[in-house]
Amino acid sequence: MKLKDRNKLGVAAPIFQIDLSREPGDRYTELALAYQEKLPGLIALFNDLLETTGIPARYHHPINVMAKLLLRRLYSSIETEELRGISKAVNVPMYLLVAFNVILDLLMGCTSGAVSSLEPKQPKTEARMLHFRTLDWLMDPLRSVIVQLDFIRSKSKTPTKVIARSITYCGYVGVLTGVREQLSLSLNFRGVHNASTRSEHFRFYFHHLLVLLGFRQSISSILRSYLLSDNQDDQDDKGAKSLGVIAEEIPPQHTTAAYLTFCDSKTTIILEKDFSSAQIRSSNTFIAATNHDEATHEPTISGPTPATDEKTLGPSRFGSGMEDIIEESEERLDCITSKWRSQVHRTERRLRRAATPTESLQPEADTTVSQRELIRWISAYPTTNECTHFAAMMDPKSGTVLWDRVYPNLPLDLEDD
Protein backbone atom coordinates (compact mmCIF):
# COMPACT_ATOMS: atom_id res chain seq x y z
CA MET A 1 0.00 0.00 0.00
CA LYS A 2 1.27 3.45 -0.91
CA LEU A 3 1.71 6.05 1.84
CA LYS A 4 -0.88 8.42 0.34
CA ASP A 5 -3.45 5.60 0.32
CA ARG A 6 -2.63 4.67 3.91
CA ASN A 7 -2.94 8.30 4.97
CA LYS A 8 -6.46 8.34 3.56
CA LEU A 9 -7.32 5.54 5.97
CA GLY A 10 -6.17 7.63 8.92
CA VAL A 11 -8.96 8.78 11.22
CA ALA A 12 -9.28 11.45 13.88
CA ALA A 13 -8.68 10.18 17.41
CA PRO A 14 -11.89 9.56 19.39
CA ILE A 15 -12.52 12.28 21.97
CA PHE A 16 -13.24 11.65 25.65
CA GLN A 17 -13.84 14.17 28.43
CA ILE A 18 -11.88 13.91 31.68
CA ASP A 19 -13.45 15.84 34.57
CA LEU A 20 -10.73 17.04 36.93
CA SER A 21 -13.37 17.94 39.52
CA ARG A 22 -14.04 14.24 40.09
CA GLU A 23 -12.03 12.13 42.48
CA PRO A 24 -8.81 10.94 40.77
CA GLY A 25 -9.84 7.29 40.99
CA ASP A 26 -13.05 8.01 39.06
CA ARG A 27 -11.74 10.29 36.30
CA TYR A 28 -10.79 7.64 33.76
CA THR A 29 -13.45 5.00 34.50
CA GLU A 30 -15.62 5.61 31.42
CA LEU A 31 -12.57 5.76 29.15
CA ALA A 32 -11.14 2.54 30.60
CA LEU A 33 -14.46 0.71 30.22
CA ALA A 34 -14.67 1.83 26.58
CA TYR A 35 -11.34 0.03 25.97
CA GLN A 36 -11.71 -2.82 28.47
CA GLU A 37 -11.19 -5.46 25.80
CA LYS A 38 -7.91 -3.92 24.64
CA LEU A 39 -6.20 -2.78 27.84
CA PRO A 40 -5.47 -6.32 29.11
CA GLY A 41 -3.16 -6.61 26.09
CA LEU A 42 -0.64 -4.57 28.07
CA ILE A 43 0.69 -7.87 29.48
CA ALA A 44 1.82 -8.98 26.02
CA LEU A 45 3.08 -5.48 25.22
CA PHE A 46 5.22 -5.46 28.36
CA ASN A 47 6.90 -8.69 27.27
CA ASP A 48 7.30 -7.32 23.74
CA LEU A 49 9.04 -4.28 25.20
CA LEU A 50 11.39 -6.51 27.17
CA GLU A 51 12.19 -8.37 23.96
CA THR A 52 12.78 -5.08 22.12
CA THR A 53 15.37 -4.10 24.71
CA GLY A 54 17.21 -7.38 24.12
CA ILE A 55 16.12 -9.29 27.25
CA PRO A 56 15.79 -13.05 26.48
CA ALA A 57 12.31 -14.58 26.78
CA ARG A 58 13.40 -16.88 29.63
CA TYR A 59 13.75 -13.81 31.88
CA HIS A 60 10.34 -12.34 31.09
CA HIS A 61 8.41 -14.26 33.74
CA PRO A 62 10.77 -13.49 36.64
CA ILE A 63 10.87 -9.84 35.55
CA ASN A 64 7.06 -9.76 35.58
CA VAL A 65 7.06 -11.25 39.09
CA MET A 66 9.61 -8.69 40.30
CA ALA A 67 7.74 -5.85 38.62
CA LYS A 68 4.52 -6.93 40.34
CA LEU A 69 6.26 -6.63 43.70
CA LEU A 70 8.07 -3.34 43.06
CA LEU A 71 5.99 -1.25 40.63
CA ARG A 72 3.16 -0.06 42.82
CA ARG A 73 2.89 3.68 42.27
CA LEU A 74 3.93 6.78 40.36
CA TYR A 75 5.63 9.77 41.97
CA SER A 76 2.39 11.77 41.90
CA SER A 77 -0.22 10.50 44.37
CA ILE A 78 -3.01 11.85 42.16
CA GLU A 79 -1.70 10.08 39.06
CA THR A 80 -1.30 6.92 41.14
CA GLU A 81 -4.96 7.10 42.18
CA GLU A 82 -5.96 7.63 38.55
CA LEU A 83 -4.12 4.45 37.59
CA ARG A 84 -5.70 2.54 40.46
CA GLY A 85 -9.10 3.61 39.19
CA ILE A 86 -8.25 2.29 35.73
CA SER A 87 -6.85 -0.93 37.18
CA LYS A 88 -10.00 -1.51 39.22
CA ALA A 89 -12.35 -0.70 36.32
CA VAL A 90 -10.86 -3.16 33.82
CA ASN A 91 -8.91 -5.55 36.07
CA VAL A 92 -5.48 -4.72 34.62
CA PRO A 93 -2.59 -5.29 37.07
CA MET A 94 -1.33 -2.06 38.58
CA TYR A 95 2.32 -2.88 37.87
CA LEU A 96 1.60 -3.01 34.12
CA LEU A 97 -0.04 0.42 34.17
CA VAL A 98 2.89 1.85 36.14
CA ALA A 99 5.40 0.34 33.71
CA PHE A 100 3.33 1.58 30.76
CA ASN A 101 3.34 5.13 32.12
CA VAL A 102 7.03 5.20 32.98
CA ILE A 103 8.53 3.38 29.99
CA LEU A 104 6.33 4.67 27.17
CA ASP A 105 8.49 7.74 26.48
CA LEU A 106 11.46 5.49 25.64
CA LEU A 107 12.36 4.47 22.08
CA MET A 108 9.80 6.74 20.41
CA GLY A 109 10.73 8.22 17.07
CA CYS A 110 9.09 11.63 16.86
CA THR A 111 9.00 14.82 14.84
CA SER A 112 7.99 18.00 16.64
CA GLY A 113 8.15 21.68 15.80
CA ALA A 114 6.22 24.77 14.84
CA VAL A 115 5.86 27.05 11.86
CA SER A 116 4.39 30.48 11.19
CA SER A 117 0.99 30.03 9.57
CA LEU A 118 -1.41 32.30 7.72
CA GLU A 119 -4.46 31.49 5.65
CA PRO A 120 -4.99 33.05 2.19
CA LYS A 121 -6.39 36.59 2.31
CA GLN A 122 -5.74 36.89 6.05
CA PRO A 123 -3.84 40.02 7.13
CA LYS A 124 -0.22 39.48 8.21
CA THR A 125 -1.14 40.48 11.75
CA GLU A 126 -3.18 37.25 11.99
CA ALA A 127 -0.12 35.02 11.54
CA ARG A 128 0.64 32.67 14.42
CA MET A 129 2.79 29.62 15.01
CA LEU A 130 1.16 26.20 14.73
CA HIS A 131 2.65 23.23 16.57
CA PHE A 132 3.06 20.05 14.51
CA ARG A 133 3.84 16.61 15.84
CA THR A 134 4.14 12.98 14.73
CA LEU A 135 4.73 10.02 17.07
CA ASP A 136 6.38 6.83 15.81
CA TRP A 137 6.66 3.61 17.81
CA LEU A 138 7.06 -0.11 17.20
CA MET A 139 4.20 -1.26 19.45
CA ASP A 140 1.48 -1.52 16.80
CA PRO A 141 -1.32 -2.74 19.14
CA LEU A 142 -1.19 0.67 20.84
CA ARG A 143 -2.57 2.28 17.69
CA SER A 144 -6.02 1.00 18.64
CA VAL A 145 -6.04 2.82 22.02
CA ILE A 146 -5.04 6.31 20.85
CA VAL A 147 -7.48 8.95 22.12
CA GLN A 148 -7.87 12.69 22.50
CA LEU A 149 -8.62 13.74 26.06
CA ASP A 150 -10.48 17.01 26.70
CA PHE A 151 -10.01 18.12 30.31
CA ILE A 152 -12.77 20.08 32.08
CA ARG A 153 -13.60 21.14 35.64
CA SER A 154 -17.33 20.69 36.18
CA LYS A 155 -17.26 22.52 39.54
CA SER A 156 -15.51 25.62 38.21
CA LYS A 157 -17.11 28.89 37.09
CA THR A 158 -16.91 27.57 33.50
CA PRO A 159 -17.96 23.91 33.93
CA THR A 160 -18.07 23.02 30.23
CA LYS A 161 -14.91 24.83 29.16
CA VAL A 162 -12.13 22.58 27.87
CA ILE A 163 -9.03 23.80 29.72
CA ALA A 164 -6.56 21.47 27.99
CA ARG A 165 -6.38 18.74 25.36
CA SER A 166 -4.01 15.79 25.06
CA ILE A 167 -3.50 13.16 22.36
CA THR A 168 -2.39 10.04 24.14
CA TYR A 169 -2.98 6.35 24.80
CA CYS A 170 -5.78 4.96 26.95
CA GLY A 171 -4.24 4.05 30.30
CA TYR A 172 -1.55 6.72 30.08
CA VAL A 173 -1.94 9.65 32.49
CA GLY A 174 1.20 11.64 31.65
CA VAL A 175 1.39 14.03 28.70
CA LEU A 176 3.36 13.41 25.51
CA THR A 177 1.36 15.77 23.27
CA GLY A 178 -0.92 18.51 24.60
CA VAL A 179 -2.33 21.99 24.12
CA ARG A 180 -4.15 24.65 26.11
CA GLU A 181 -4.70 28.35 25.51
CA GLN A 182 -1.31 30.02 25.00
CA LEU A 183 0.72 26.82 25.30
CA SER A 184 1.27 23.62 23.32
CA LEU A 185 3.90 21.01 24.12
CA SER A 186 5.32 17.71 22.95
CA LEU A 187 8.05 15.26 23.97
CA ASN A 188 10.56 13.47 21.72
CA PHE A 189 12.80 10.59 22.73
CA ARG A 190 16.52 11.44 23.01
CA GLY A 191 18.80 8.44 22.81
CA VAL A 192 22.00 10.09 24.05
CA HIS A 193 22.94 12.04 27.17
CA ASN A 194 25.87 14.23 28.20
CA ALA A 195 27.61 11.92 30.65
CA SER A 196 31.36 11.40 30.40
CA THR A 197 32.23 9.69 33.70
CA ARG A 198 31.05 6.56 35.48
CA SER A 199 29.50 8.60 38.27
CA GLU A 200 27.55 10.73 35.80
CA HIS A 201 26.28 7.64 33.99
CA PHE A 202 25.34 6.10 37.33
CA ARG A 203 23.37 9.20 38.40
CA PHE A 204 21.52 9.25 35.09
CA TYR A 205 20.47 5.59 35.14
CA PHE A 206 19.83 5.57 38.89
CA HIS A 207 17.36 8.39 38.25
CA HIS A 208 15.53 6.10 35.80
CA LEU A 209 15.29 3.44 38.52
CA LEU A 210 13.91 5.96 41.01
CA VAL A 211 11.30 7.07 38.47
CA LEU A 212 10.34 3.44 37.83
CA LEU A 213 9.91 2.85 41.57
CA GLY A 214 7.88 6.02 42.04
CA PHE A 215 10.44 8.05 43.98
CA ARG A 216 10.97 10.65 41.26
CA GLN A 217 8.69 12.34 38.75
CA SER A 218 8.74 11.20 35.13
CA ILE A 219 9.27 13.69 32.32
CA SER A 220 5.71 13.15 31.00
CA SER A 221 4.33 13.91 34.46
CA ILE A 222 6.35 17.14 34.54
CA LEU A 223 4.87 18.11 31.16
CA ARG A 224 1.40 17.36 32.51
CA SER A 225 1.97 19.89 35.31
CA TYR A 226 2.45 22.61 32.68
CA LEU A 227 -0.74 21.63 30.88
CA LEU A 228 -3.10 21.42 33.87
CA SER A 229 -3.22 21.66 37.66
CA ASP A 230 -3.70 18.53 39.75
CA ASN A 231 -4.95 20.51 42.75
CA GLN A 232 -8.62 19.62 43.22
CA ASP A 233 -9.15 22.81 45.23
CA ASP A 234 -7.84 24.85 42.29
CA GLN A 235 -11.11 24.85 40.36
CA ASP A 236 -10.48 28.05 38.40
CA ASP A 237 -7.94 28.07 35.59
CA LYS A 238 -4.83 30.12 36.35
CA GLY A 239 -3.56 30.23 32.77
CA ALA A 240 -0.44 28.86 31.14
CA LYS A 241 3.08 29.68 32.25
CA SER A 242 5.17 31.79 29.89
CA LEU A 243 7.94 30.29 27.78
CA GLY A 244 10.42 32.38 29.76
CA VAL A 245 9.37 30.75 33.02
CA ILE A 246 9.39 27.28 31.46
CA ALA A 247 12.88 27.85 30.06
CA GLU A 248 14.09 28.70 33.58
CA GLU A 249 12.28 25.97 35.49
CA ILE A 250 12.85 22.83 33.41
CA PRO A 251 16.61 22.73 32.63
CA PRO A 252 17.87 22.16 36.22
CA GLN A 253 15.27 19.50 37.01
CA HIS A 254 16.52 15.90 37.11
CA THR A 255 14.92 14.10 34.16
CA THR A 256 15.64 11.59 31.48
CA ALA A 257 17.14 12.92 28.24
CA ALA A 258 14.48 14.26 25.86
CA TYR A 259 13.62 16.95 23.33
CA LEU A 260 10.82 19.17 24.63
CA THR A 261 8.92 21.55 22.36
CA PHE A 262 6.84 24.42 23.76
CA CYS A 263 4.89 26.97 21.71
CA ASP A 264 2.77 29.97 22.77
CA SER A 265 1.64 30.90 19.20
CA LYS A 266 4.21 33.71 18.91
CA THR A 267 7.44 31.90 19.75
CA THR A 268 8.53 28.29 19.98
CA ILE A 269 11.36 26.90 22.11
CA ILE A 270 12.95 23.46 21.93
CA LEU A 271 14.84 22.17 24.95
CA GLU A 272 17.52 19.59 24.25
CA LYS A 273 17.13 18.24 27.76
CA ASP A 274 19.83 16.35 29.60
CA PHE A 275 19.80 15.00 33.16
CA SER A 276 20.11 18.38 34.91
CA SER A 277 20.64 20.90 32.09
CA ALA A 278 19.33 21.84 28.68
CA GLN A 279 20.34 23.53 25.46
CA ILE A 280 17.58 25.86 24.25
CA ARG A 281 16.70 26.97 20.73
CA SER A 282 13.92 29.37 19.82
CA SER A 283 12.23 30.78 16.73
CA ASN A 284 9.19 32.80 15.71
CA THR A 285 9.20 31.47 12.12
CA PHE A 286 10.15 27.77 11.90
CA ILE A 287 11.79 25.25 14.22
CA ALA A 288 11.84 21.46 14.40
CA ALA A 289 13.36 18.54 16.29
CA THR A 290 13.39 14.81 15.78
CA ASN A 291 15.61 12.41 17.76
CA HIS A 292 19.17 13.68 17.39
CA ASP A 293 21.09 16.68 18.76
CA GLU A 294 21.57 19.93 16.88
CA ALA A 295 25.15 20.00 15.53
CA THR A 296 25.38 23.76 16.09
CA HIS A 297 25.07 23.43 19.88
CA GLU A 298 28.23 23.95 21.86
CA PRO A 299 28.88 21.34 24.57
CA THR A 300 28.02 22.39 28.11
CA ILE A 301 30.84 20.24 29.54
CA SER A 302 34.40 19.77 28.40
CA GLY A 303 35.51 16.74 26.47
CA PRO A 304 33.66 14.54 23.98
CA THR A 305 30.37 12.97 25.09
CA PRO A 306 27.85 10.76 23.33
CA ALA A 307 25.70 13.79 22.60
CA THR A 308 28.33 16.31 21.54
CA ASP A 309 30.40 14.07 19.28
CA GLU A 310 27.43 12.44 17.56
CA LYS A 311 27.98 14.50 14.41
CA THR A 312 31.77 14.47 14.42
CA LEU A 313 32.27 10.76 15.00
CA GLY A 314 29.11 9.59 13.26
CA PRO A 315 26.43 7.10 14.25
CA SER A 316 28.87 4.20 14.27
CA ARG A 317 29.65 5.14 17.90
CA PHE A 318 26.28 3.72 18.87
CA GLY A 319 24.78 0.26 18.66
CA SER A 320 23.06 -0.70 15.43
CA GLY A 321 19.64 0.10 16.90
CA MET A 322 20.62 3.62 17.91
CA GLU A 323 22.45 4.10 14.63
CA ASP A 324 19.20 3.37 12.77
CA ILE A 325 17.24 5.73 15.01
CA ILE A 326 19.68 8.59 14.39
CA GLU A 327 19.79 7.97 10.64
CA GLU A 328 15.99 7.94 10.38
CA SER A 329 15.83 10.99 12.63
CA GLU A 330 18.13 12.95 10.34
CA GLU A 331 16.04 11.98 7.32
CA ARG A 332 12.83 13.15 8.97
CA LEU A 333 14.34 16.45 10.04
CA ASP A 334 15.84 17.06 6.59
CA CYS A 335 12.49 16.32 4.98
CA ILE A 336 10.44 18.91 6.83
CA THR A 337 13.28 21.47 7.01
CA SER A 338 13.75 21.32 3.24
CA LYS A 339 10.07 22.11 2.76
CA TRP A 340 10.45 25.23 4.90
CA ARG A 341 13.58 26.32 3.00
CA SER A 342 11.76 25.92 -0.30
CA GLN A 343 8.94 28.05 1.04
CA VAL A 344 11.42 30.74 2.11
CA HIS A 345 13.05 30.71 -1.35
CA ARG A 346 9.66 31.23 -2.98
CA THR A 347 9.00 34.15 -0.67
CA GLU A 348 12.42 35.62 -1.47
CA ARG A 349 11.78 35.48 -5.21
CA ARG A 350 8.40 37.15 -4.75
CA LEU A 351 9.88 39.91 -2.58
CA ARG A 352 12.72 40.55 -5.04
CA ARG A 353 10.28 41.10 -7.85
CA ALA A 354 8.36 43.67 -5.80
CA ALA A 355 11.26 45.35 -3.96
CA THR A 356 13.06 48.56 -4.79
CA PRO A 357 16.88 48.37 -5.28
CA THR A 358 17.58 49.80 -1.81
CA GLU A 359 14.94 47.85 0.07
CA SER A 360 16.16 45.33 2.64
CA LEU A 361 14.55 41.90 2.29
CA GLN A 362 13.60 39.60 5.16
CA PRO A 363 12.19 36.54 3.37
CA GLU A 364 12.13 34.23 6.38
CA ALA A 365 10.23 36.72 8.53
CA ASP A 366 7.67 37.13 5.72
CA THR A 367 7.24 33.40 5.07
CA THR A 368 4.13 31.58 6.25
CA VAL A 369 2.30 28.39 5.31
CA SER A 370 -1.39 27.59 5.27
CA GLN A 371 -2.89 24.88 7.44
CA ARG A 372 -3.56 22.78 4.35
CA GLU A 373 0.08 23.05 3.28
CA LEU A 374 1.32 22.16 6.76
CA ILE A 375 -0.86 19.04 6.78
CA ARG A 376 0.82 18.01 3.50
CA TRP A 377 4.23 18.56 5.10
CA ILE A 378 3.33 16.46 8.13
CA SER A 379 1.83 13.70 6.00
CA ALA A 380 4.79 13.35 3.62
CA TYR A 381 7.24 10.46 3.88
CA PRO A 382 9.43 10.04 5.90
CA THR A 383 7.92 12.54 8.39
CA THR A 384 4.94 10.19 8.42
CA ASN A 385 6.07 6.62 7.86
CA GLU A 386 5.17 2.98 8.48
CA CYS A 387 5.87 3.37 12.22
CA THR A 388 3.81 6.55 12.70
CA HIS A 389 1.01 6.03 15.22
CA PHE A 390 -0.47 9.50 14.92
CA ALA A 391 0.14 13.00 13.63
CA ALA A 392 -1.32 16.27 14.91
CA MET A 393 -1.43 20.01 14.32
CA MET A 394 -2.18 22.18 17.37
CA ASP A 395 -3.02 25.86 17.78
CA PRO A 396 -1.80 27.23 21.12
CA LYS A 397 -3.52 30.57 20.49
CA SER A 398 -6.95 28.96 20.79
CA GLY A 399 -5.84 25.89 22.75
CA THR A 400 -7.25 23.46 20.16
CA VAL A 401 -6.20 20.48 18.08
CA LEU A 402 -6.80 21.69 14.52
CA TRP A 403 -6.09 18.37 12.84
CA ASP A 404 -5.02 14.88 13.84
CA ARG A 405 -4.79 11.46 12.26
CA VAL A 406 -4.39 8.01 13.79
CA TYR A 407 -2.87 5.61 11.27
CA PRO A 408 -3.68 1.91 10.93
CA ASN A 409 -1.02 -0.77 11.00
CA LEU A 410 -0.71 -1.58 7.31
CA PRO A 411 2.37 -2.51 5.23
CA LEU A 412 3.65 0.25 2.98
CA ASP A 413 5.10 0.22 -0.51
CA LEU A 414 7.21 3.38 -0.38
CA GLU A 415 9.18 2.92 -3.59
CA ASP A 416 6.42 4.32 -5.78
CA ASP A 417 5.79 7.44 -3.68
Q: Based on helices, strands and strand pairing, what is the structural class?
A: alpha+beta
Question: What gyration radius follows from the Cα positions, in whole Å?
Answer: 22 Å
Major beta sheet, strand line-up:
1-4-5-6-7-8-9-10
Q: Beta-strand level of the residues, as a percent range?
A: 15-25%
Distance between the termini: 10 Å
Instruction: Let me know the number of strands.
Output: 13
- Biggest β-sheet, characterized? 8 strands, mixed
Low-confidence residue ranges: 296-319
Mean pLDDT: 89
Q: Categorize the overall geometry.
A: globular
The percentage helix is 25-40%
Order of helices and strands: HEHHHHHEEEEEEHHHEEEEHHHEE
Secondary structure tally, helices:
12
SSE arrangement:
Blueprint: H1 3-8, E1 15-19, H2 29-34, H3 42-52, H4 60-70, H5 77-90, H6 94-103, E2 109-117, E3 128-136, E4 146-152, E5 164-169, E6 177-180, E7 183-189, H7 198-212, H8 219-227, H9 243-249, E8 258-263, E9 268-273, E10 278-283, E11 286-289, H10 310-313, H11 320-354, H12 371-379, E12 388-395, E13 400-406
Parallel strand pairs: 1-4
Antiparallel strand pairs: 2-3, 2-11, 3-12, 4-5, 5-6, 6-7, 7-8, 8-9, 9-10, 12-13
Helix pairs in contact: 4-6
Protein name: ceramidase
EC number: 3.5.1.23
Domain Acid ceramidase N-terminal: 12-74
Explained architecture:
InterPro entries: Acid_ceramidase_N. Its EC number is 3.5.1.23. GO terms for molecular function: N-acylsphingosine amidohydrolase activity. 33% of the residues lie in helices and 20% in strands. The chain is built from 12 helices and 13 strands. It has helices at 3-8, 29-34, 42-52, 60-70, 77-90, 94-103, 198-212, 219-227, 243-249, 310-313, 320-354, 371-379, and strands at 15-19, 109-117, 128-136, 146-152, 164-169, 177-180, 183-189, 258-263, 268-273, 278-283, 286-289, 388-395, 400-406. A hairpin with a 4-residue loop joins β12 and β13.
